[in-house]
Amino acid sequence: MSHETTPPQAGVIAKDADGSALAGGGVSPLTPSKDVRRRVVTASFIGNFVEWFDYAVYGYLAAVISSVFFPEAERQTALLATFGVFAVSFFVRPLGGFVWGHIGDKLGRRKALSLSIVIMSVSTFCIALIPGYASIGLMAPVLLLLVRIVQGFSAAGEYAGASAFLVEYAPANRRGLYAAVVPASTAAGLLLGSLIAALLSSVLTADQLHEWGWRLPFLLAAPMGLIGRYIRTKLEDTPAFRELAAKEGTEEKAPALAMFKTYRKQLVIACGAVMLNAVGFYVILSYMPTYLSEELGFGPTESFLATTIALASYIGFIFLTGMASDVFGRKRMLITASILFMVLTVPAFMLLETGDFLVIVLVQILLGGMLTLNDGTLPSFLAELFPTKVRYSGFAVSFNLSNALFGGTAPFMATLLIAMTQSKIAPGWYLVAASAVSLAAVLFATETSRKPLKHL
What we know:
This protein is mainly α. The chain folds into two domains: 1-31, no CATH class; 32-443, Growth Hormone, Chain: A (Up-down Bundle). It has 23 helices and no strands. The protein has helices at residues 34-60, 62-69, 75-88, 93-106, 109-127, 133-136, 139-155, 158-169, 175-179, 181-203, 206-211, 216-219, 221-233, 239-246, 255-262, 264-295, 300-328, 330-352, 357-375, 378-385, 391-407, 410-421, 426-443. Helix 1 packs across helix 10. The radius of gyration is 22 Å and the shape is globular. Residues 40-450 form the Major facilitator superfamily (MFS) profile domain. One of its GO terms (molecular function) is symporter activity.
């Protein structure tokens, strides 16, 4: 595909894809047109949407899956085992971050993203084909664990790659808005998963849902993945990456190792900043239906409906947050998010215990809105912390390391803390702790929103 360029305008200083003025006032041949940028946004949204729909369905159907693969265990033990499988699959994500970061920084963002979506779709499709415990015994949860590990490896490259892709294509003054497409598409994938789970819970009997109904969403992975890959292969790589690749001697032989050697401070800050996103995302947007049904006694349909409403509002808020981060700066938005969670999370969980459906919906909208202050800002913040030659690696390693330790384990920890403390608000205190860590990390960061991307 030929890459279009924007013609120069009289009296205007030309700028490259980073927003930096070009020597001699010329126009960079790599500067993308508005039409190209629209296609980039569409491809990033659809690809990320497909990946996270695949990844999220497991969390929404955890209660059903626990009875299929751990039928002989006591209900809470089976749920812990199911979330344990969910958590173990995250432990491979730091390794995936290294691998996908290396591919993305050496061979290009597009190649990494096109390959990761295929692996995710195939592994998700395989979940639908695994026989239950009643058919093959212990091999059932073993196969489930293996497929989940492959899923975790694939997902390690998606969020970071899509964020870097968008930031490197975005106009300099709109990087926050462009990068907000990533969490918005993630939430859209969750939203579809929630809608399908709610639909299955309402139209199928409990026996039908346990016997075959839970498998249906996983079967959608194959066709959706093929569509996402097709769209991604029709794009060129980012202007920043192509500019770097064109300069001899600038590429890193081992980007991840170079990142650890030269950018350790940025890596530590990034890992800490991701903490609130890691815990908040999986507690508020993934674990919540299970929390409402298993801990508070709501029906599955009501639980999914409440979360669906919250997800829809989250998607709207995320773009506002992205725009706000371009105006007010990344650091200010991230600090505000942490402080709000530290102050309001526990009272919000107390309100959930009232059992009033309207109150629960409003609380979830509030928590989701607070989370967007972090989630809508984080992709651009992390991408801007690292230069182009290690951007994919820096983002992927920090994001996946924090998510492996604290994100994937969040549903398990929430369930365990409730069991240990006999308190339904225990997950709220866990969120407060995560917020405090994120706040401390961001305080040591410098503002990145008004600086040009560093190419070298």
